[in-house]
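Question: Now follow the chain.
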Amino acid sequence: MTVSSATSGTSNTTSSNLAATSSSSSSTGIDWNALINAGVNAKLAQATSISTTITANQAKISAYQALQTNLKTLASGLTSLSSSIINSLATNAFATRAATISSIGNVNASAALSMSIKNGAATGDHTLQIGRLATAQKVIGASQSSQTTALGYSGTFSIGLSGGSKSDVTITSTMTLQDVADAINAQSSTSNVGASIVQVSSGSYQLVLTGTNDAADISYTSASGDDILNKLGVTDSSGAFSNVLQAAQSAQFTLDGISMTRNSNDITDVLDGVTFDLLQATPSGTSIKVSIGPDTSQISSALQTFVTNYNAYRDAVIAQQATNSNGTASSSAVLFGDGTMRDITNRLEAALTSTVGGLTMSALGLSFNEKNELVLNSGTLSSILTSNLSGVTKLLSAQTATSSSQLTVVNTGAAPQSFNLDLTVDSSGKLTGASVGGDSSLFTVNGTSIIGNPGTIYAGMAFSYSGSTSQSIAVTSTMGIAAQINQIASTYSKSTGTLQILITGLQSRDDTLQQKVNDINSAAAAFKTQLQSQYAKYQAAIQSANNLLNYLTALLNAGSKN
């Protein structure tokens, strides 16, 4: 919003009447401009006062918006600590996983294995031996004197991998060895067979065919014309490959004493959420130890982010409490004594200093220093993450538990509740309804899933039911420190929150006040025009009277001379 000046468009406006009045004011001794400006400025005084109020409101709006931004940042940074649901879809810090690999015996573990792990993967230790890697078949043809001279062969053949798609490749007499390789590669996305040319020596070139998938043999059939691969020495007279450089084979490995084979070195289906990338075989008598556990570095990082964001909010609040040397509020502290800001701060401090599961923030290494800034002792945090991760999880996050193993918590939501969930199952064992206190509009049932409906206090909560009978199950939720602060910050900073209501109210008030300023300015301009016209008439009348007086005086003076 732009605040208009109280005197805008009025004090510098003149008219022809005022110009005439000004030019002759010396003859009357009256300063008409001074009279007009005094009258207009009296009218404009209220507009000046209102404009001052608008400016003050705008300063408050900016301060509220700054608090709103700080709270949004605070809430966002705590999202990963506010939930502790563990599954493959979870993105919270407690669901992240890390793996370490170490050698048992004389083996380079990192050279033999690499891994990737999804959130929610089961934790634990495993022992892996790699017997052999999966390989693709690779074959080579006879030596050719040139790769750029026309071969003089023409024919069509089919190529692919055993059990897979095949592609037809047509060769003409003008095509070179390089052209043959290019023609095979043009079909490789379908055939899964690639071609390359190896220069063995000067004037000696050989065609190499390689399967792009492991553990599958290359399949070749001459369809018509010349038997192209036979001509190039890739196959013999029986149709078999003449020279196999590498046989196709599956990977063989043993995990926790269980022998397995796979047709790829990327093993994704042995442990849920874990991918083993086999790089080389482990020597006999050696193995690799794989340890999968929570990635606590994510928790540490999120807590450090929280400290930074909390202090940023705290600094913004302190700036609004600044005082002058005499104890009065500083001119920059436009929210000095503001009740909403005080309420937010008190609620945040109460959540931060609360006790959950017998632990407080000090157990995490959180404390306030001599400047009243929140600080984090990384050593204390590292120690408790190692010794009591479950306690840390409960202290920080929102957690929901049920009284029945048949009702699994899928998601806690932002503000989990405690209640009795009444489940209805029909005669066929199908889940048909979920209600709380007889109200079935709070949850939606989809198969075995039970989802809290948007707009209710159960929004975001989700469960899975494996039972086959109707029953009532107790659901109990607790809110950790991070979950509490996240909820408070989110509630106050959201688009329908208290701060936005205050901002919108001030903006609306300023719009009304600005219209008043505009109306006053318009009225003052009209009043000025009226005065200019009125005083011009006064000036003209006085001037006329003066002219008559001068005329009569002249007549009298002339008569006295006679």
